[in-house]
Design a protein that fits this description.
This protein is α+β, with helices and mostly antiparallel strands and 258 residues long. It is built from ten helices and seven strands. Strand 1 and strand 2 form a beta hairpin. Helix 3 packs across helix 6 and helix 4 packs across helix 6. The N terminus is likely disordered.
């Protein structure tokens, strides 16, 4: 993974090296979501766990566009969504209800990424959900859960139902709402969302074609994890895709590192 070398006296000096590394990766994830046009103005979120025993998390400053977010501007909050460090920016309470529920229940998860893309919401509104009609879909379907829509996520009493529906899965389709991935790293959550979004886009286009769709056999879906390991040659997304994505961002605008 490419790492920035902060200049003396810059914003990174206010944070531990471990927290700063997470901040840079999370800011990069926000910029990449904007780059791939998955953002919904300021209304979705990516959260990451801050290293350490305090159970603190980083979330976007509410009101800042995703292509403006920097490592130092991310807001640090506790499990209840309360700010634990000075920031002039507020936090969206609806955004953190979903994220805090998953972070509290899944200690194996570092990053939760949630989107409201047109493709994702369109598929989430379909009764049969995600269909096994593409190579991309097999990697999602073997690790996918669903959660029914209960309105804007403002109530803590929804958390147990969301957590129960998700279980130990990494992909969650929020019915009539959007997509969510939970990863052991920011890089993993991002790669999973790339696959999830691609799967939904393919489904909408295939359905728009009007022809009969060919389903992938369940036996193939059942072997998706092994196929993924073979394709990635044993390397995780942190090694295989994340350095290249950071290089792409650096060519466009490296200010996310500040």
């Amino acid at each position: 993974m490419l790492k920035s070398v902060p200049a003396a006296g810059d914003a990174s000096a206010r944070f531990s090296a471990e927290e700063w590394a997470v901040r840079v990766d999370l800011a990069a994830a926000y910029r990449l979501v904007a780059h791939f046009h998955w953002d919904d103005l300021v209304f979705t979120h990516i959260t990451a766990r801050v290293p350490g025993p305090e159970h603190h998390f980083l979330i976007n400053p509410y009101g800042m566009m995703f292509d403006e977010i920097t490592a130092s501007s991310l807001v640090k909050v506790d499990m209840q969504g309360n700010k634990v460090a000075d920031s002039p920016w507020p936090v969206n309470p609806a955004g953190f209800v979903i994220h805090s529920a998953i972070h509290a229940a899944r200690h194996d998860i570092e990053c939760v990424l949630h989107t409201h893309t047109l493709n994702g919401v369109a598929v989430s509104a379909q009764k049969n959900g995600l269909l096994p009609i593409s190579q991309q879909s097999i990697f999602v379907l073997q690790n996918l859960a669903y959660h029914d829509y209960e309105g804007v996520a403002l109530r803590d009493d929804e958390k147990p139902r969301l957590v129960a529906d998700m279980g130990q899965k990494g992909y969650l389709m929020l019915r009539n709402h959007g997509l969510l991935t939970a990863g052991r790293s920011i890089a993993e959550a991002f790669q999973m969302m790339y696959t999830f979004e691609s799967t939904c886009a393919i489904q909408i286009r295939a359905q728009a074609g009007g022809g009969e769709l060919i389903p992938v056999a369940q036996g193939i879906i059942d072997t998706a994890m092994g196929q993924a390991r073979a394709v990635s040659t044993g390397l995780g997304p942190q090694q295989l895709i994340w350095p290249g994505l950071l290089r792409r961002l650096d060519r466009i605008d490296s200010s996310y590192r500040t």
